[in-house]
Amino acid sequence: MSLRQMEYFLTVVEEASFTRAAEVLHVTQPALSHQIKALERSVGGALLERLPRGVRLTPMGRAFLPHAELAVRSAVQARRAARAAAGAEGGELHVAALHSVAVGVLPDVFARWHAAHPRVLLQLHEYATSEALREAVERGAADLAVGPAPTDWAGTAVPVGEEEIVLVVPFDDRLAGRTTVMLPELADRAWVRCAMEPVVHGERFLDRACGQAGFRPRTAVCTEHTSTAVRMAAAGVGVCAAPSHIVRGAVGEDCVLLTPDPPWKRTLTAYARVPPTGAAEAFVTLLRDTWPGPGSPTLSDEPRGRVSSGCG
């Protein structure tokens, strides 16, 4: 079994056709078929079912697929790490991040990176949930991730900053003259909810926090992205809870930010399967130096005070 054979297998699966896969790989179809058959002999059974029009995975092929993807991506990461190890002067770096971090924090970081390392290409992969982010790193889709510290992580995790969750209201809101608010004061308000809202102990964060404050939040609208929810709140649709850095990234200062009392915060980390070296190490250092806001954060999974898991 060779890495090339696994690359050929993945291409056939992606294209659902030996003919198209051969064209993508720039090999002849008989040569491609020979390599796939050799791979199947090495694993002891058929991975692909040949159909009159196309192919599909066999049960053995479905079991083999994620491991082949991880092997091929790990090899790509290994080549990138080796090329970039000598001072981050070439190659590319794949960064995975929650949507909120990508919108609210990374533009400034990427701009500084490009100025300092113009020969290193950055590839950004955005994810809606912490679970999807972790899965992407585990399967080798990125060199490192930026998001909440994953639990039971066997690799490297470096704290890079603290994320504060704030409440967004429009300028003409009755609370606009305040800087802080206690959650029970919002029991009668409508809320803009986001599909990316964090989940704590199997319950959506806002439901959990409001429940502890003695009420259930009434939803006015539910959006797909946090940046959209912030704009809805700024327009007066309802109150929105969002990371403070994405508010500025989404709508500038066209709204009022209220800090919950007590405040809601969570630690964000840069984490990877192996210790960052070369370009990855330089990126983590830049991220820590650039991160907005102070603090040496700590973790807790309670909505009163700290948020430890969830989405962007």
In short:
This protein has 312 residues and is α/β, with parallel strands linked by helices.
Q: What would your notes on this structure say?
A:
With 312 residues, this protein is an alpha/beta fold. The chain is built from eleven helices and 14 strands. It has helices at 3-15, 18-25, 29-43, 59-84, 99-104, 106-116, 130-138, 205-212, 226-234, 244-251, 278-290; strands spanning 48-51, 54-57, 92-98, 121-127, 144-148, 156-169, 180-181, 190-194, 199-200, 203-204, 218-223, 240-243, 256-260, 264-272. The strands form four sheets. Strands 3, 4, 5, 6, 7, 12, 13 and 14 form an eight-stranded mixed beta sheet that branches. Helix 1 crosses helix 2, helix 1 (3-15) packs across helix 3 (29-43) and helix 1 packs across helix 4. It starts with a helix and ends in a 22-residue tail after the last helix. The model is unreliable at 294-311 (pLDDT under 50).
DSSP helix fraction: 40-55%
Question: What fraction of residues sit in β-strands?
Answer: 15-25%
End-to-end Cα distance: 40 Å
Strand count, sense and barrel status of the largest sheet are:
8 strands, mixed
Structural class: alpha/beta
Kindly report the average pLDDT value.
82
Instruction: Enumerate how many helices there are, as a single number.
Output: 11
Oligomer: single chain
Tell me the radius of gyration. 23 Å
Residue ranges: pLDDT <50 for 5 or more in a row? 294-311
Note the overall shape. elongated
Give the strand tally: 14
Order of helices and strands: HHHEEHEHHEHEEEEEEHEHEHEEH
